[in-house]
Design brief:
- Six copies of one chain form a homohexamer.
- Chain A has a seven-stranded mixed beta sheet with strand order 3-2-1-4-5-7-6, sandwiched between helices.
- In chain A, helix 1 (about 25-35) runs parallel beside helix 3 (about 65-85) and helix 1 runs antiparallel to helix 6.
- The first copy, chain A, is about 40% helix and about 15% strand.
- Chain A has one domain: Rossmann fold.
- Chain A is globular and about 50 Å long.
- Chain A is of the alpha/beta class and about 250 residues long.
- The two termini of chain A are about 20 Å apart.
- Chains A and B meet through helix 1, strand 6, helix 7, strand 7 and strand 8 of A and helix 1, strand 6, helix 7, strand 7 and strand 8 of B.
Chain lengths: ~250, ~250, ~250, ~250, ~250, ~250
């Protein structure tokens, strides 16, 4: 089995479904950079620019709605490029991001085209944000629809890729309990560089660097007897929505 | 990285802590046989023979306590041999298996000697059985104590091996939710042969074969888009007590 | 109190609300056949034919949408007849089944007309299927609306019938914990005959026969000291949404 | 099937295991009186007199430990007599009631002798009281041990009687959610008379009368369409520890 | 810091969002009267009159829809006046109360205008009532939207006021666990007077007086060592949706 | 009401019950320093020195058990002095800290003597540490026993002080969800100074400074509309075991 392929010889592909332009950087930048560093395809489906709900600075500066969208789009494109991922914008409107059959259907199309082997999205609860659970719900619904032989969309019927929820801003308030700790040490510099593309949220650069360090400490405390991980390990935390399938307990 | 070793070059070792003589066969026989088939060491710490609580037939036949123990010991030794594992008996007395500092300390000794990289034991709740949670509790406590520099036991301080809970007889009543589905297809015949060593519980052979088949169906439904698993896949279900540590989301 | 009547002399009536054409057979066929065998009325409200999401074989055979619907309708009608139940189709469209005020209102009409004393429907969570929770939600909402004096629908205001959730395909993943084990031994042959009406899903006949057997084993282990149930007991598992009201603890 | 017998012809017997002398009156007096009114046997295993923890008035009056015990014993005997139940005292010492193998073993003896078809005890959590969960834990453990063929106690092996947890003083804080609402209207006067035997806790008479009325209101709201329960219905709430086994959904 | 102001000198303002005309009286009348008695502003956003779902008596008397609404409006206005609160009606239609973007947007307007420092609303689950969770969901969504700089509504961006869920009619069935017990003894007469404005629901006056007394008993049992609360203490129970922020543990 | 007194005129007193010598510094140092800064009494009951389980460095340096205990005692005494608290050592032996009736009884004595109005201790679950839940369990049990009129200990019967669980090292794995965010900004320098008394755990100084900063960010996001907290706010997170009792919702 070579790099970038699965046991059946197909390619590894990661699909990231996010509500706003910055989410994929703070929450899954390490996973994206890791996959890209292995030569795998990563596609980000960015449902809105976060123009109303997560662009306070731009509004305080008196920007128009179109300007805010353009700023956030440019930042997200730059960050995706740094991470090595393709990004697609749906401009569905945020705050609130309203789930619609059309938007879910568009995501079914992405699933059938991109054919992900791994899906990353938001957790299903967030008392501080309506849009995050709405995006996650549509990501999950579209994944199920894409598996149905009778669903009328382009492309072949999909298998059942595993789904990982990335970490929300206030994890304990979102019923988020780390189930998977991903070692992102080798790509952390890339993640940091992507964070720095998000000029409007500079106060979060250090916050999420520190989170990476803390998840790294936790990763080492759960890493088993033999791994010998270095002190400056960085990590990202994820939850699983479906059981892990494996040939080895580890 | 060769078969049977970890990233740091040490050996993979599985420690199974069970309350009664039969548990490791029904609930973890596949995982044991898989590890053994890879040339790895597997040690079973069997705290009691299940002489009072899980030997109804022998009692109905009028056996003495010593006879019942001897019967269950012989069955368990045969099953362990079939699976390729070493087994140690503690004869701590079942129904009830009472947690004691001495028994926990004996398990610390096993941890420090065997140096497991993976631990398998019962789930922490079981309304139908007192002994299963008691065994799990001691397995978990001993694991933590074995990690402490100041704990006075032979051997070097242990790392933090992952812990997996195997499936109880009535999973939903024990808050058991499959988090890991282990593909045991290639060793299922070995597991079945080990089950058939347990002559006193013949009614369970088919029951647990059927469970393996059902978990195999579930495994295929969660196996992602590319795996192409055969229809006669067999599985075993596990829960994790600690987060998974990994370098790849899959 | 005679067969088929309640303490106040009214008739026992069971209403089953399902998302797709096959659900009532696999999940509640025993309960339906039992009620019918007691001479009680059973009405099945089948919201969709499962034409897109649960008819993979027909699509692979190249059938049109209309053909798929006709196939599933015929199968469901045959199965309902075997079980002794009346079935009504709403053809609301599946994958996704979208909750709408109109569909909920139609269900209110059914409640007021049929006047169920027991309601059976899907559980409220199912990570593998959008339509099941959607059907359950509408069944529950319509039940509450039908109780309101001011709700503008034909028929008298309804009482508050108990609601039972039947077992999903992957129960542990749907937070399904058996709270009621129904002894369906005496009608199991009828349930099997109804299953065999669903020709397109032949692989499930044995799967659900085995599930019935396993729930039967569990039923016997929880059946109390005196019942003396036979070894070939068959069962179905249910959850309650509301507390049981009774005049005797048992 | 006649009054007071099960389907297999054996007698209905209720075993109540409580921590303190008053618990069975406030929490299960209705169930006890109902069973007794049907001519069934009810045995109360009262582990302590509640001499330290629930006899504040007697201590304020300057009574000795022996006097407090005698007072509570007399009250409990009177209340049991009013309800129609037999009561046995274990005098195991309260505040704290410490679980011991000997006390659990004594309860196994009771199970094998009395052969209950229904068991009532405390819920497993109570932040306001250590003794209640301790009593419940021993009641549950003894029940399992009494079922084991190899457990060395007098009497025949027991079946698996259902277990009901009665309502704690602050139900929401004890994770108590009513799953069974028992109609005790016809015996409420008897329960009230038993409450009035507990002279030291007069402030609770009205409190628990009011609770009975409130659970009666809830019972009527969940009683289904046809029951026509009167406005002055009284109820008691219970949780189940095991699934209900039944031949009819209702 | 004077009465009715916060640490930063702004006024304390309470916003109550309810589904039906009577809810604010039974569930939060004490909190409202307390705040009003301190000279603080209280605004009630009453989304419907409860005309279909909670006006059974009026329908039985043959009233028209317009009459029922008028009756309930008059009652609610009288009760709000007694409590000292302002009330606004949205007439959004009940049974079902359907969440819409327009209604949520109207609530955003209320938040930005009224600028609450405390928000009270329904709990998020209620198996007996669709409208209560729907109202709570909109109250929570509007609160988040009102905080977004880019949300196009009149008024300044809002801070993040704490949210309290008041007690549903069947608390245990709604996952309601008291986290805050509010002492309403000094205003209980006012709450009772407000209850008596709801002539159509006279059967609830005593029910909710009794609930107040019971929550008062619980309040005293949790009130710490020194408070010396009187025996006739009255209370109301609340849950928090967000963590408490404080400068002192107490 | 003056500083350091309750509404009934008694003094505010904080009792902290911890398993090991360092816990009170990392987890509750801010709360302790805040109370002390208000002139209130704070007593720390330190059940063990953490000599075996949390002194890895000393063991690696070849210290004897007595030496390790002396080192940890000196550190803890210094830290308590910096915070302004009294500390008492029970030397009960760690790893494992075994709950015993004698140790619980000793804590009852402390409760009756110190008469706390607030209690701080560990959370009830910790997969990484046996001793923390054991200490919490004894702290809770002793609190209940100290309230019983009949419990034979010196001193007057206690009231019911609120209990707060402080934050474990891996909060999400311990079911820890922040319910109270305490603003410790004004005493953070004191907490840091106390941390620096724990020379053996220097790697944690920055870790817990960072945690304080992160909880401060969360505190500001939940602080309501008017507080105007500074950017360098520090916080500590707590859970409540009992409902809050209050005269004002805020």
């Amino acid at each position: 089995m070579t790099e970038g392929s699965t046991v059946s010889g197909e390619q590894h592909v990661t699909l990231v479904v996010t509500a706003h332009a910055g989410d994929f950087v703070w929450r899954a930048g390490g996973a994206i950079a890791l996959a890209a560093s292995r030569g795998e395809r990563v596609t980000i489906a960015c449902l809105t620019f976060g123009e109303r709900g997560e662009s306070a600075r731009a509004w305080r500066e008196g920007r128009s709605l179109a300007e805010v969208k353009a700023i956030r789009r440019a930042e997200a494109e730059a960050a995706a490029a740094v991470l090595g991922a393709e990004i697609r914008f749906f401009d569905a409107g945020d705050y609130p991001l309203l789930p619609t059959p059309d938007l879910t259907d568009a995501l079914v199309g992405v699933y059938r085209e991109v054919r992900p082997t791994v899906v990353l999205t938001h957790a299903l609860a967030d008392p501080y944000n309506l849009d995050h659970p709405a995006a996650a719900r549509m990501a999950l619904d579209a994944r199920v629809l894409a598996q149905a032989a009778g669903y009328p969309a382009e492309g072949e019927v999909l298998g059942a890729p595993p789904v990982f929820f990335f970490e929300p801003h206030q994890p304990e308030m979102c019923d988020f309990r780390p189930q998977v700790l991903l070692d992102i040490t080798e790509v952390f510099d890339t993640k940091r560089a992507a964070m720095e593309c998000l000029a409007a949220q500079q106060h979060l650069w250090e916050y999420y660097t520190e989170l990476g360090r803390r998840r790294g400490v936790q990763l080492r405390r759960n890493a088993g007897p033999n791994l010998g991980l270095p002190a400056n390990t960085f990590g990202e935390a994820y939850m699983r929505y479906f059981p892990q399938v494996t040939g080895r307990l580890a």
